[in-house]
Amino acid sequence: MIQKQEHEQFPFEYDERYNDLQLIQWCKPTESSMWGYYASYKIGAEWLDEKESIVVTTKRKMESIDFLKMFMTCFSSNLELKSFSKIYSIDYDKPVIKVPAFRSIVSLLIVVHFLSVVDRIKSLKRGYVHYSENLKKVKGHISLLKNERKNILGKRYDRIYCDYDEYSIDIPENRLIKKALLFSKHLLYSCNLYDAICQVLNRNLALFENVSCDVEIREVNQIKGHKLFNDYQEAIRLAKIILRHFDYSIAKADNTEGTVPPFVIDMSLLYEHYVYGLLYEAYGNKIAYQYKGITGYPDFLYISENFKAILDTKYIPKYEDETLDTNVVRQLSGYSRDLFVLRKLGYKNIGEDSFIPSVPCIIVYPTEGNGIFNPFKGNRLIDICNKRVKGLSHFYKIEIPLPTVI
Q: Is 246 within a domain?
């Protein structure tokens, strides 16, 4: 096993086989660096070949990141559910990799994602469920063959075997989700996680209280979501992943062998979604995410009457002490001259020959936790733009601490 931290160089010569891997990339990180394979902004475990695996962990000074709290914060925004599935990927078709450092991260990440999606379901779907039962009164229609075998031949004349349909919440889709919720409960309680996740779990279980969990393995793949019900479709997809992840056995939900399927977490995208969750919690609809301009997609636009700004996340802790990269300055300067972006910010009647206002550009970068969970909440954005970038007009830096495991 080859283990590296984010952005460290690998001892590989150029080989096209490595180009299909997500954890490494052929690049030249800085002007003074040499061309080579470097760990990207992603962590996880992948197979390099049939015998050798690659493991990339978080960078130095970031070893105690609380991934679960970051992921839960992401769901406080108004983004579509499908956007969160891009943060991580898991390959169940390849053999597992023994990585003790990631023993519980993969399982818990899927469970937190699943619980957060189910938490968006406000009312349960209903449908017709078919029943075949031996009853005292006729219900639906009599199953003549079964009634003769079970009742007439046995002289049980007080019973009638009936087939009938009922409009119920106890449909296969809800049963599958309920079963995955029970798997999640077993895992969370065995890990002694903090109350916030357990509160979401209990809320979800209460919603599915009157749903059974009778789902056979052979039935799982037959259960499909519906495109009109996005919440359900994503919840069903994740429920299937959870059951497969634990090999359809609740006893494996607390596996301590330290093996994981090959997986990748995009830390840059996770941080971007995390910051959006904090911004949305503090400023609501004043934040526009990934608005399309001519020059690209700025991460965030802050739109208000008294203050307008362009914010861009950079998963690069070095910005705490160093100046901005030239390419980053050019990128944000392009956004601040983009007429589509300026009009979205609220600058009206502005054209190619108009006077271009100086729009504040803000770089948001991470630091390890300092006790402040959301520095935006309760503060105006203009008031926390107190770290100016030397030599540049209207450029600022804001550090956003990452939550850490206590």
A: no
Question: Per residue in 224-255, pLDDT tens?
Answer: 766 667 788 888 889 988 888 877 766 666 55
| One domain, residues 163 and 272 | no
- Distance between alpha carbon 357 and the CA centroid of its chain, in Å? 37
161 and 271 assigned to the same domain: no
Helix (H, G, I), strand (E, B) or coil at 400: strand
Tokens of 46: 């992948």
The answer on 398 and 274 residing in a single domain is: yes
DSSP-derived secondary structure for 10-73: PS----GGGGG-SSEEEE--STTSPSEEEE-SEEEEEESSSS-EEEEEPPTT-TTB-HHHHHHH
pTM: 0.82
Residue 362 lies in a domain: yes
Whole-angstrom distance, CA of residue 208 vs CA of residue 354? 58
As a whole number of angstroms, the distance between CA 327 and CA 290 comes to 19
Question: Residue 206, Cβ neighbours under 10 Å: how many?
Answer: 8
Residue where a domain terminates, one of 116, 147, 168: 168
Residue span of the structural domain in which 159 resides: 127-168
pLDDT digits (tens, 9 = 90+) for 256-272: 567 888 999 998 999 99
pLDDT at 276 over 90: yes
